[in-house]
Design goal:
82% helix, mainly alpha, 67 residues, single chain
Length: 67
Amino acid sequence: MFDVIVSVVMLAAAFLIGGGVTLLRRGEKPRGLLMLILAFVMVANVAIWVVPDDDGDVPLRDVAAED
C-alpha cells in the first residue's frame, strides 16, 4: 500500500514541477515558486522513506513489514 502512496506522491510532484515552470513562464513568479517548493518538499519526504540509511535498512520496508 505504501508503494502506491509513494507513486502517487511522486506523480503529484511531477505535475507540480510542470505547473510551477508553466506559471513562471507566464510571469506568475510567487505561485510558480510555491509550486516548485511544494514539489521539492514532497520529493524530499519520499526520499526520507525510500533511501537506505547507513545500515542499509529502508524505512518504508520496515513499516510495510509491520502490517
